């Protein structure tokens, strides 16, 4: 499994992803699920992927090749982010081996993947899309300023409560880390290290990137101090009528 | 769907359950899922149920009948909580219509239910069990001091971080309400009002009971102040290296 979250606030975009892949409980590995595409001064994109690893690796390889060979269709060839999403969606559809076709047999393997694509093209505001296995996509919006893929339930309440378009970019990034940490703590299939990337509005490049491992001082401090802060918050909630406080 | 959580701390037991049942998105009703069985001075039990409503209603009716008619097997007839769990498990198995038998046809209806049973029998410490559709059961323990049934993922992180055997009973109850509120906010299939019951160790009765609706001052205050506390907690987390704070 996987957990990735993308957040769109006025100040920019936050991307955070875990790195655990597993074919089963006894086949667990570390693979990067957050991929950067940077064209400084022109555009910057991040793609996060959940689902079949062969599919997403093929997708990323094809996207990089298309840019390198300056093919007619490539990440740099569009003036609008929705067109980039359409293009990535087409490559995604092509990268999913159709296991249900007769020649491949119905072997029950799911080769689908779901993506979060975010970034900014020069002349446009930043944006973020969830791209489905069919290649179609939905955008984040002020009412829904975050997108999640993979094991999304554990980390959703904190995002629901905190993320607004006005949230500061670094606060959104801290919230994303807490959301990841909550998921890692509650579900074995999501694991450290965590990749974190920020794209600040107008930067047209990757503004900040970090990899947080369990022994990263920042992660350890967030991990430790968050539990303590929650305990204090619970203790300071209103009392019950019979407590007389 | 449903979300119920039971917590076992040194000071006693907490039970919290939502009240939304739905056959589909356009068939939503309010039904009680938390049931009290009180034999003051002798024993007190709470049963919470997730799954098929016909099954759980039949189960509860049978448990009440067995007590009223003072049948050989009834909730009052045991000296150990694990025996009560075994008995409730048997009634549960009997109450699940076997839809997969040839005469009923394979109609795809799931008649299973999962229960949380907690309480105290005089002379024993309080305890809590999760009873599976097969009738077997597992107990809560100091390492796993809470049990959840139904839509459990959204509300798990807060429990993982806070609940310990030493947690005060009322703090455990506040945590349970936050866990319910997080789930209600993030998932349409779980809804208000929330039933809350506390059994304090040694009381041998229902120590406290509350129904919290959206307009209950306590729920509204918890609902409102929790978001605010979380925002403050996030803002006070350690800064990133580039923030220079």
3D structure, described in words:
The structure is a homodimer of 245-residue chains. With 245 residues, chain A is α+β, with helices and mostly antiparallel strands. The first copy, chain A, has a single domain (3-214), classed as Glutamine Phosphoribosylpyrophosphate, subunit 1, domain 1 (4-Layer Sandwich), CATH 3.60.20. Helices cover 31% and strands 29% of the residues of chain A. The first copy, chain A, has helices spanning 53-68, 81-95, 156-162, 169-186, 217-235, and strands at residues 3-9, 12-17, 20-24, 27-30, 34-39, 43-51, 113-121, 127-131, 137-139, 146-150, 194-200, 208-212. Chain A has a five-stranded antiparallel sheet, covered by helices on one side. In chain A, a hairpin with a 7-residue loop joins strand 11 (194-200) and strand 12 (208-212). Chain A is globular. Chain A binds chain B through residues 153-158, 160-162, 170-171, 173-175, 178, 182-183, 185-187, 208, 210, 218, 221-222, 225-227, 229-231, 233-243, and chain B through 153-158, 160-162, 170-171, 173-175, 178, 182-183, 185-187, 208, 210, 218, 221-222, 225-227, 229-231, 233-243.
